[in-house]
Recover the amino acids of this structure.
């Protein structure tokens, strides 16, 4: 059973990022290290003791749709209620609306734990957090007054409605429409698919944020507006009124996260109310809906990255515990009369378990650094804030894509460690392998993250933002070189940084020469290359200033066993496109 | 829907291996190229038109156990009957017992197609093929007379019973026992788990091959004997008699291959017959059961390798077909007024699809070369036969481990190409991802394959067998260097061969110095390194002598985009053990 790794989380929080020093310096106001530790500890307890025990019933029973009503598995609605009572839903939400106003970084750390407990559970509130952000930044005071407090307390949940059958990665093709009524409200019509927790039995009301087009809207993404569409209309006194004209028409039968209802939502079918059309309110400006949605989406991408970290941690723990119990064969060097050894003593299993631990910690470092950059951007001013925002922007696609790839890889390795028992559902290793697989897909596929990194993040501030990050990584490398506990980490990081700079140079030149296809062809290996370097360098940074022999040994393992991949990735980026084009012409033409 | 890639299969058969030249030279007797093509074509038709359409019901309904009886999904028993009528079960079986005596290589090629059609279906007959081999080589003429013809025709199926709860990878711990009755029969007692098709409704009788210990047997693997235990005893005239004392007590609830019943078998519980104990007959010599079982196991490992290739091919086709239909975004360079492009035109998706195609073809080359080596060993004499047997022995762990890792990787990439639809079970991409995951585990985990390669195969003939293979690969490299259609393949292969030789040298030295743990720590990366080089070199070989521009372009893609990984793998092998040990001491000690 999962036990939240509160020490590793606290260590990463404080030493991979500058958060520890900031707390000492009072940069986060009254927030003290003790309070941070207490929050992490209590979240760890809740995730381990309350969420994790309900993961299995969630997977086995799943959410059930009947007559438009979704029933979540036994105990789940109550779990959600207790989770909200703990104040977890509003952890980083504004105090004005009842939140605790704590740093995003703390929210990130707790999200890791909720996801380790159960990804199907954790994903629901994640959408609410996104809705809170969008309303806080873009909604009118009236809408804020009606909805924000209940979303922050968790009394109501929020959803994000983007995807339509013909419009997934490409929102240009979006068709849902909104007709202005003239009284400030709109009537929304259309079908949305893959809506997470689109219908559920946790809360009395559900606040749908829906992308749709106004009648006179320009084509493409510049003609998309964002609307708030509640399941039940809300009276002025805050009580619930009529059912709105939106319902869940079907639910997907998915590979994993079975307890998370993935709904097809129908707006404006005339099923409810006298006038057809779901009543909605505009959020932000007309035709600027995508910008509002991106507010949510960036943080949602980091949140999905936390799913990767959470699953990877849970899979690693499960595999380690199995490998320490299960005995097969006698390890070389084990006493002759000691019988069979725990499989954790066999070198090949050691390699597997350490690879799992190392990849998880690399993803943790990148995601936490991203959360920290978001906080610093919010706290800072002027150029400093801008620099931190750029850092967050650069790290976000890596936090999402690298971590979710790691989630899948580590869950797969964890299943493998269990041998035949891993393939049997009873063990739970297979459920992690199934759950993990959605994270590289939603909130922008990992391919789209890589494209985002190359096409939008590399050019930030004329390339200076990425250059500043690489300069920091070089400093980490130098420090690692001087650290005796880190073995060849300094040497390996130096080579990997050369690979990163060569690949970055290639990308920058390709973009400035208009060779877009060459750049795009290398986007995925580039993202992985960048992430590996950051994952090792940031962890090495933490190892340098702080005594933690386990962490130092893990960093050395990362550098000496995992980082070598950067050479091949660099080659794919800088020299891979020609053979890719030739093979695509020969083999992929329709 | 899957269409058997008969041209690629025929090309690989003939040109990756020496089979094409052998046919011309008459080395395979009357077997002509036309007949080979006809067999591949008809197998392709059967796999595409008869097996593949039943895969979905197999996955969705699965096999069902009730009161000790297993019911396979609707249509499956009839599918099996038609498959046997086609003569496929006895394709490579001895003519003396009704088989067609065709080369193992053809059996390998057809197995790929059965597995692409449905892995849950294909795995059943695979076990029968193993049982046929074991009986042919080790059973008494009486047992052969009673059982072989019916196993070859497919009227009865065979099973392999090794695993017990405490004895999986380590058969030393095996407990099932066999008591001699005195009349030449034995009574078998014990529990066996994970028995594939241990109970089914395809055939009237089931021939279980069971490992068990005689009363006076030495401890460990030198005290294990092999027994034939039929579900129903057989009268002298060949008709079925009494039910034997063996039954299926439960069936696993698995991640995938749902239609393949995975049974817990109980022997000698007294449930059937008057005297407790399942009646069994010794196969081969007492206490030499493991040697007999290894006869089956080596070929079973290659057969599992074919599951990897089969799944990878099916996943690649499914993803390519989806990517050519699904339109999202406009690819750079596409006409402005052409609307959204098929996603197959986006460079990142091209990379994914080509990686899938390339990895599949690399695994195909290794497995087919292994099948060919088995044939040459059987046909040859003296030193030649010995050399080919050593080649088969070396290739077997790579055929098993590399191909099944590829199966998982490619199925995962294929699911990713489908985006959100891939996560929905309806599409079938998720089913391939689930099915693929068992293959790296059973018939010896991939970790054990790597250990086998390093500990038992590297030392073959004092290292000369591996040296001879590497010499051949060097010749392939030289030829590739001279081939203008192969881009930088020659150059990249040269570097990769240097990596392979360095890693091989390290392993050889570690073993000769008694540094077993150092060698074992690098076994898995060493297997992958060796496999990548072979996969590219063997395919380059085929590309050099034959006009096939698609194949040449794919080889170039392999070399320029995938082969670069060998540098990191070499580093892991030659320098990875120290940090692995240090991290294991710090983090994995119980």
């Amino acid at each position: 059973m999962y036990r939240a790794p509160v020490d590793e989380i606290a260590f990463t929080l404080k030493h991979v990022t500058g958060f520890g020093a900031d707390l000492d310096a009072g940069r986060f106001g009254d927030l003290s290290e003790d309070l941070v530790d207490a929050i992490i500890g209590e979240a760890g307890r809740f995730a381990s003791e309350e969420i994790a025990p309900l993961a299995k019933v969630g997977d086995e029973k799943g959410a059930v749709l009947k007559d438009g009503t979704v029933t979540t598995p036994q105990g789940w609605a109550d779990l959600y209620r207790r989770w909200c009572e703990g104040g977890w839903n509003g952890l980083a939400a504004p105090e004005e609306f009842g939140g605790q106003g704590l740093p995003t970084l703390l929210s990130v750390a707790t999200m890791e734990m909720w996801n380790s407990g159960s990804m199907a559970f954790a994903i629901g509130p994640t959408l609410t957090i996104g809705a809170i952000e969008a309303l806080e930044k873009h909604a009118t005071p009236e809408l804020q007054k009606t909805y924000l407090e209940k979303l922050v307390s968790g009394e109501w949940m929020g959803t994000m409605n983007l995807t339509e059958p013909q419009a997934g990665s490409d929102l240009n093709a979006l068709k849902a429409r909104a007709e202005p009524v003239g009284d400030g409200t709109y009537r929304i019509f259309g079908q949305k698919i893959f809506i997470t927790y689109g219908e559920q039995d946790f809360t009395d009301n559900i606040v749908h944020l829906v992308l749709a087009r106004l009648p006179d809207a320009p084509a493409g993404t510049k003609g998309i507006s964002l609307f708030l569409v509640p399941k039940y209309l809300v009276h002025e006194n805050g009580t619930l009124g009529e059912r709105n004209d939106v319902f869940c028409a079907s639910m997907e039968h998915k590979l994993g996260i079975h307890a998370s209802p993935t709904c097809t939502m129908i707006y404006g079918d005339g099923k409810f109310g006298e006038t057809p059309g779901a009543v909605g309110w505009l959020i932000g400006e007309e035709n600027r809906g995508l910008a509002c949605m991106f507010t949510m989406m960036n943080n949602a991408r980091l949140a999905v990255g936390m799913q990767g970290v959470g699953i990877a941690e849970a899979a690693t723990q499960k595999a380690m515990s199995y490998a320490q119990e299960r005995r097969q064969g006698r390890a070389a060097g084990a006493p002759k009369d000691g019988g069979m050894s725990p499989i954790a003593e066999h070198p090949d299993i050691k390699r597997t378990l350490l690879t799992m631990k190392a990849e998880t910690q690399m993803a943790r470092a990148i995601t936490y650094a991203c959360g920290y950059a978001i906080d610093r951007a919010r706290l800072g001013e002027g150029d400093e804030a801008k620099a931190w925002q750029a850092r967050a922007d650069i790290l976000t696609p890596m936090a999402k894509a690298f971590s979710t790839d790691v989630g899948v890889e580590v869950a797969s390795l964890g299943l493998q460690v269990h041998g035949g028992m891993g393939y049997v559902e009873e063990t739970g290793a297979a459920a992690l392998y199934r759950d993990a697989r959605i994270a590289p897909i939603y909130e922008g596929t990992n391919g789209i993250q890589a494209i985002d990194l190359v096409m939008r993040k590399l050019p930030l501030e004329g390339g200076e933002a990425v250059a500043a990050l690489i300069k920091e990584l070089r400093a980490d490398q130098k420090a690692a070189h001087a650290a005796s506990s880190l073995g060849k980490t300094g040497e390996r990081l130096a080579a990997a940084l050369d690979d990163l700079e060569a690949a970055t140079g290639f990308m920058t030149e390709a973009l400035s020469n208009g060779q877009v296809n060459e750049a795009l062809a290398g986007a995925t290996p580039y993202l992985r290359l960048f992430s590996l370097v950051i994952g090792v360098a940031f962890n090495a940074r933490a190892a340098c200033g702080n005594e933690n022999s386990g962490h130092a040994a893990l960093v050395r393992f990362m550098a000496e066993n995992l980082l070598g991949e950067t050479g091949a990735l660099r080659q794919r980026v800088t020299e891979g496109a020609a053979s890719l084009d030739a093979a695509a012409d020969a083999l992929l033409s329709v």
Observations:
- Residues 157-288 of chain B form a domain with the Butyryl-CoA Dehydrogenase, subunit A; domain 2 fold (CATH 2.40.110.20).
- The radius of gyration of chain B is 24 Å.
- The first strand of chain B starts at residue 64 and ends at 66.
- Chain B touches chain A through 96 residues (CB under 8 Å).
